[in-house]
Design brief:
Blueprint (H helix, E strand, L loop, with lengths): L1 E7 L2 E7 L5 H8 L18 E4 L2 E4 L12 E3 L8 H12 L9 H14 L5 H7 L11 H13 L7 H12 L20 E2 L11 E2 L21 E9 L3 H8 L2 H7 L3 E8 L5 E11 L2 E14 L4 E10 L5 E12 L5 E12 L9 H21 L17 H16 L5
Parallel strand pairs: 1-5, 2-6, 7-8
Antiparallel strand pairs: 1-2, 3-4, 3-5, 8-14, 9-10, 10-11, 11-12, 12-13, 13-14
Helix pairs in contact: 2-3, 2-5, 3-5, 8-9, 9-10
């Protein structure tokens, strides 16, 4: 983990994030500036382009810790920029956008072209624009908009701020995005610290079942790996010994996980257990049916377990890898707290869904739903011969609870 502090659109933003967090995810998830769009996530399409210290970069392949102490500008931060004051209406006039997904990155690159190449012709504009892909416009309108702005800036007296930017760029001096300070002007605004809205715990934590969060005991390692990490937990109304014993019964545990079905289960010579099965899930437009395997290793002394697995979605052929670490902790009145850390990574078409705050909330709700099912299945009133019904995922109810929770946090209340 690293503490990343940077200036985002003129305001200070500081968060502790995993070292591998990309700048695009940091801007969207931590800064809540969702105008930065993640497309290919390989640095090819250019949709995620933002400015770092005034220069365009691909935020999907730039690590956020590498930008510590720097100034970052996303599409939401162009309000006072004189170049964008010309580019925005030019894009509209020349029909330089349709769906708009590529537009934030297009604007950042267009700004750089106008700034660095004041005498660029159409051929030069097309070459410089070749790193930004658009599936809608055919580029004619985008090129026309950039040429229009280049023409407007020919006269040094017409737009003195733009020419000041060009002169500074040639000298290696950054004047923008420090919006308040231009040649001959004094700064009128202070460097302001802000806390983005909708930063409630369930975006990265799922400890909202009434018991509160608990830290793992000293010496217990619950570190997990993955592009997305969710920390959560749930409370079980039974003693720790009972809960730990129940969690060793993988078929019963799988029956508590919404959408999961085991097809194979074997104990291994090293004391671990391996299972195969599939998990089906539907969340809005996203449907997936992952088939794969996982291995469980348990530390009886510390009551810590780690489950690592991988699978492939039969619908999109996306591949997932994940690991879950949990520890069983005693509470008062014979109750138990299970603290869970979950990390996962997706490759393929589903990767675009995996990092949004809404998906993190959804995963957090799944952890809580799992805890509720564990309570139900440990009920001593249930006959030992009575089969455990397979838990089913009510995706609509879970999605609705996520949205309600976000609305509550937005208005600062819990009722």
């Amino acid at each position: 983990m690293s503490v990343v502090t940077l200036e985002l659109n003129g305001q200070n933003l500081s968060r502790e994030v995993p070292d591998r967090t990309h700048l695009g995810d940091f801007i969207r998830d931590e800064g809540r500036k969702t105008g930065t769009h993640l497309g290919c996530e390989h640095g090819v399409c250019g949709a995620c382009t933002v400015l770092v210290d005034g220069k365009p970069v691909r935020s999907c392949i730039t690590f956020a810790p590498a930008c510590h102490g720097q100034s970052v500008t996303s599409v939401e931060g162009y309000e006072d920029d004189p170049l964008m004051a010309l580019l925005r209406p030019a894009f509209s006039k020349h029909h330089g956008l349709q769906c708009g997904f590529c537009t934030p990155g297009m604007l950042a690159t267009a700004r750089d072209i106008v700034l660095r190449f004041p005498d660029a012709d159409e051929a030069k504009v097309r070459v410089e624009l070749s790193g930004n892909l658009c599936r809608c416009t055919g580029y004619k309108g985008i090129v026309g908009a950039i040429l229009d702005v280049l023409g407007q800036c020919k006269d040094p007296m017409a737009h003195p701020r733009i020419h000041a930017l060009r002169d500074a760029a040639r000298k290696g001096v950054q004047l923008w995005p420090d919006r308040a300070r231009w040649p001959g002007e004094q700064s009128t605004s202070a460097f302001v610290t802000f806390a983005p809205e909708d930063m409630g715990q369930t975006s990265t934590h799922a400890d909202d079942d009434g018991a509160g969060a608990m830290t793992a005991p000293q010496g217990v390692n619950l570190q997990v790996e993955g592009d997305t990490v969710v920390e959560g937990g749930f409370t079980v109304n039974y003693a720790p010994d009972q809960v730990w014993a129940f969690m060793a019964d993988l078929p019963a545990v799988a029956g508590c996980l919404p959408g999961a079905v085991l097809t194979e289960h074997e104990k291994q010579g090293d004391g671990g257990e391996r299972v195969k099965g599939h998990v089906a899930i539907k969340f809005g437009p996203m449907s997936a049916a992952f088939n794969g395997s996982a291995k469980l290793v348990r530390d009886e002394a510390q009551r810590v377990a780690v489950l690592k697995g991988a699978g492939t979605d039969s619908l999109s052929q996306s591949r997932a890898t994940g690991n879950i670490a949990y520890v069983v902790l005693p509470l008062d009145s014979g109750r138990t707290r299970v603290k869970v850390n979950l990390g996962f990574s997706l490759q393929g078409p589903l990767a675009q869904f995996s990092r949004s705050g809404l998906v993190k909330d959804f995963v957090g709700r799944l952890i809580l739903e799992f805890g509720k099912n564990v309570n139900l299945r440990m009920d001593p009133k249930r006959s030992a011969d009575e089969p455990l019904p397979q838990a089913k995922l009510n995706a609509f109810a879970l999605a609705w609870s996520v949205l309600i929770g976000r609305i509550k946090r937005l208005f600062g209340g819990n009722s």
